[in-house]
């Protein structure tokens, strides 16, 4: 296999958004700490880096970071995340005309809760 094709295939793997797992599909976001729920901890989701970020759309980076955050929360037994931070990183990129600065990653962090169905249905 041509080494350039191999490199291109490796980059394309980083271009798609991180997939949502079944446990992550049940996680929803809230704007404030829910009452009557058990606090489980904090999580961080990230998509993109210096190498793949310039080849990944901003939408895929956002979706991938959100999916990773929800997957981690679901793995912890949570069903609610309250977003704490939303950062888009801009670094020098290897792609684009002449390199330069562009968005190359998205990082989200939040607090995870496990809430009973009664709390979720009231929201």
Total DSSP helices: 4
How many individual β-strands?
4
Average pLDDT reading: 77
| Residues in β-strands, percent | 25-35%
Summed up, the domain count is 1
- What profile does the largest beta sheet have? 4 strands, mixed
- From the helix content, strand content and strand pairing, which structural class follows? alpha+beta
Query: What gap, in angstroms, lies between the N and C termini?
Result: 54 Å
Low-pLDDT segments: none
Question: What is the CATH homology-level superfamily?
Answer: Hypothetical protein apc22750. Chain B
CATH topology: Translation Initiation Factor IF3
| Radius of gyration from the alpha-carbon trace, in angstroms | 17 Å
Report the helical percentage. 25-40%
**Which shape, going by the Cα principal axes?**
elongated
What is the highest CATH level, the class? Alpha Beta
Strand order of the largest sheet: 1-3-4-2
Written as H for each helix and E for each strand, in order along the chain, the element string is HHEEHEEH
**What is the second-level CATH architecture?**
2-Layer Sandwich
């Amino acid at each position: 296999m041509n080494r350039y094709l191999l490199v291109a295939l490796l980059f394309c793997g980083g271009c798609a958004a991180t997939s949502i797992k079944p446990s992550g599909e049940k996680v929803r976001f809230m704007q404030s700490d829910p009452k009557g729920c058990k606090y489980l901890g904090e999580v961080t989701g990230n998509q993109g880096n210096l190498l793949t970020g310039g080849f990944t759309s901003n939408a895929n980076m956002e979706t991938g970071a959100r999916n990773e955050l929800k997957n981690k929360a679901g793995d912890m037994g949570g069903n609610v995340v309250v977003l704490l931070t939303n950062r888009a990183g801009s670094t020098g990129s290897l792609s684009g005309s002449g390199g330069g600065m562009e968005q190359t990653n998205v990082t989200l962090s939040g607090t995870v809760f496990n809430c009973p169905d009664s709390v979720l249905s009231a929201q």
